[in-house]
What does this fold into?
Amino acid sequence: MSQIIHVVVPTPAHSSLSEPLSYASELPLPPGSLVRVPLGKREVCGVVWDAPGGEGTAAELKAVGGVLEGLPPLSSHWRQLVGFAAGYYQRSLGEVALAALPPQLRELDAVQLARRLKRAAAAAATPPEPQRPELMADQQAALQAIEAEAGPFLLFGATGSGKTEVYLRAVEALFARDPQAQALVLVPEINLTPQLQARFVERFGTDAVVALHSGMTHPQRLRSWIAAHAGAARIVLGTRMAVFASLPKLGLIVVDEEHDPSYKQQEGARYSARDLAVYRGHLEGVKVVLGSATPSLESWHACERGRYRCLEMPNRVGAGALPAVRVVNMNHQPRGTLFSAPLLAAIQARIARGEQSLVFLNRRGYAPVLACGACDWRSECSHCSAFRVFHKIDRTLRCHHCGYTERVPRTCPKCGNVDIAPVGRGTERLEEQLAELLADARRPDGTPVRIARMDADSTRLKGALEQQLAQVHSGEVDVLVGTQMVTKGHDFRSITLVAAVNPDGALFSSDFRAPERLFSLLMQAAGRAGRDAAHSAASEMWVQTFNPDHPLFVALKKHDFPAFAEQQLAERRQAAMPPFAFQALLRAEARTQEVAQAFLQAAANEASGLDGNGHVVVYAPVPMGVQRVANVERAQLLLESGSRPALQAFLSAWQPVLQGLRMKGLIRWAVDVDPLVV
Ligand code: ADP
Ligand code: ZN
Ligand code: ZN
It folds into this structure.
């Protein structure tokens, strides 16, 4: 007698197929089993799901094609995590479930699987006797709280305060309590995994730790995934995708650098791995530790509300002082100055002493905001507390919040000056200029200065980044110039000067999170300087700005994240922005801007009368900051609500409406829940 089972299959993002699909099976297959099933003309991999009764009788249904035997079923917790993510981020179950599994899994037969599982289990036999430092008082206190309380925890610790050591000890304590337990450790970037992996391997042995990230080959990913799924890998260390790792004995989740935007997936199911980690901890009754020197304002606010427990570690291990912050008022520099005289002198002094400097440029594509060169006018929106974005294509200023649009004024509306231009202009020439300005600088031995440039272009080739970093480490470079990628996590021992030469664009950005990013970036960059206690006394962080009194720089001078957070949260509360409101974006791509916006407008028109609508504000469609990419026009529409459940209810009710809208020339659309950039 065959039975009906329900299978989640890789459905397109906005499929109108109702999920899961029903199939007939000779064997009783428990939920979580991996199967091959026919779908149209293809055979696809699917996961047996715990759905309530399907339609039809087994006789009318297609039969399951095969089972991935020997593989233990995916746990009910895993299925709940996937189900939650699909629902919350408005994607199909099949898309999320199958994307969470290693691609190669589908190709294995039972014999190969059995062999791999056996190999994974055999590898787990060794954890060594490690060297461990004596804990500092703050670390001790943090660990005690993690042991004693439920969390989630926000480990708010300065760079170099010993957060990683706390993660290591928390994992040790877990393993001491439960010899089979597993830990999940998330890091924002692939670049950061080798360093952290080395420290975990040193403590727990090679076989205990596996990595999981998109830079791995398919066979490598499969090996890690199976080791985790079989319970053989005790620690999974990975980037955002690893939040979906199958860990049958999960006992602890760590999210390092929890504020980092890379935790948000920017295509497909646009999930936040940080937020899902907290959800997963809640779901599985497992403690979650989020760590950062500059927490996201969402997490900081959660501490204030008592939802997270904040554990503070303000001191650097080894008492290496944080660098002094020097703010250069660019209003007092000759017009057109890119590098101020005092900054240049400071860099030259480093070169002469044989020390290294790191100069970074913000070249990230901030949607440009216009400013007057003569007075303090900026292209603010008269209807909201947001800056309007300059759209070059039709020379308009548009508010990305409410949609308010005007032509770019010919002269400054406040003082009549004709010189109005995007904030932060002229950055292209910075690198060239620096090389010219330092052409005569000499190292202690009289040889010329060596300048290296590091950015997305210079590191595109495989291995280039590693090679450049090695050069910096070995002292072959005196001045390293780069975009913000140079600031992340690298432990440069002999850098004693870090300079941000043009950070102002982030102060006046249409992206309300830009100041938060900038502060975090500058703090992180400051953390690069003076890591070596021998140099820390002379280490400096330089900032050039036209806005020296901005609260961001005032707080930065004191290394005072709480003061900065308080000021930002007050502004956000006032303006009813996240974390005091919840947002979602509907994005559309089309052949023409008109079609993209017409789709969004049609969607907005259908909004009234939907569930939760009374608590959701639907704004007007606007072109995106980068409006045209490869001849595709892009537009977006913002939704905002004071209530997360109301927004969720609305989005669920809206989904079938969106699927029903057809428009000629429309290429694709997607919903982004809790977008990071609006
Ligand atoms: P974070 O993760 O906060 O940047 P780390 O854990 O990497 O800080 O610690 C910074 C440095 O201090 C590392 O070299 C680490 O080995 C060392 N360290 C951490 N805790 C201690 C301790 N209790 N005693 C001595 N050294 C420590
Ligand atoms: Zn003006
Ligand atoms: Zn507005």
In short: The pocket of zinc ion (ligand 2) is lined by residues 372, 374-375, 377, 412, 414-415, 417 (CB under 6 Å). The longest strand covers residues 632-641. The domain at 320-364+426-573 is CATH 3.40.50.300 (Rossmann fold). The mean pLDDT is 87.
